[in-house]
């Protein structure tokens, strides 16, 4: 059934084919064993990953080459069957080359297949060396046999090709890739230097002249951010963490509101897990409230360690006291305080110095994320210094 499905033949045709082949000196059995070893397993597709087979083909070819080399050498030494070398030498070299070629160009270069491929290369080289040793022994016992010397040379070249050829090809490919990457990096650096001296400075000048809250400054700042991300992000995909999520959130809010949000990050943030995702959502709500009700510039300070993450959101608006908010207004209580409490963190909302502005402090202890911490309590950690240099 599996063979018929793989060949896309009717089952009856496959069965009668094997019956007829078995009449030819058992060729059907050999063909069936070959198909059994080479046919991919059921359900293996490109989307599922690399093709898996019942038998490691490189190892099968390599062990076969080694067995032929050993038996042919033993036959020559024991019975003097030198004529068999004309068949066994080309067959051993062909099997060894097939094992190396399959492991390098057919099997995926990772996981167990890579380990099996490396083992197949070693076995193939060993088989070639064993056969070469037998040929040298026979040549030394049979002076004047010039064709044996020719076989020795051919086997030596085959062993060298098996051992060195694939590595040379891989090294050449790696050097070519490195050279292309280096040229791309140099070109990107030249473009970045040129644009920094011209376009980026022009966009910065437009922002300073137009004012932080104007539509022109908002568009110029968005274009500057996109250009900097393209120039300095590199060709590889950036790693996602809490800091990058907060930066992207601030950039999106700047496009929707006429404010400038400065994000300063200290330390290495963690990957956005469940608790960290709630922290990012609470920080977004705090930045959104500042953009809607305070206006002007908003400062966001992120301090991340291996034990905790702290986020401070400050604005220069009129400020408010969370205790004075009516009970039917649940925006701050649920979207910030309640969300952080459910995530196992804390959140505090307080007026700035002199009653000017508002500061929202979000704290998430990574060691005890499942635990529910108090929200909005006075005993929360003290605020960090203002990264902008002014009072909150």
From TrEMBL:
Gene3D superfamilies membership: Histidine kinase-like ATPase, C-terminal domain
One of the protein's GO biological processes: phosphorelay signal transduction system
Domain called Histidine kinase/HSP90-like ATPase: residue spans: 276-330
GO molecular function terms listed in the Swiss-Prot or TrEMBL record: kinase activity
Compositional bias per record (Low complexity), positions renumbered to this chain: 379-392
Annotated keywords: Kinase, Membrane, Transferase, Transmembrane, Transmembrane helix, Two-component regulatory system
Transmembrane segments: 16-35, 55-79, 85-106, 118-141, 147-171
Region (Disordered) location: 373-392
Domain Phage shock protein PspC N-terminal: 3-40
Glycosyltransferase found in the keyword field: no
InterPro entries according to UniProt: HATPase_C_sf (IPR036890), HATPase_dom (IPR003594), Phageshock_PspC_N (IPR007168), Sensor_HK_TwoCompSys (IPR050482)
Identification of the protein by name: Phage shock protein C (PspC) family protein
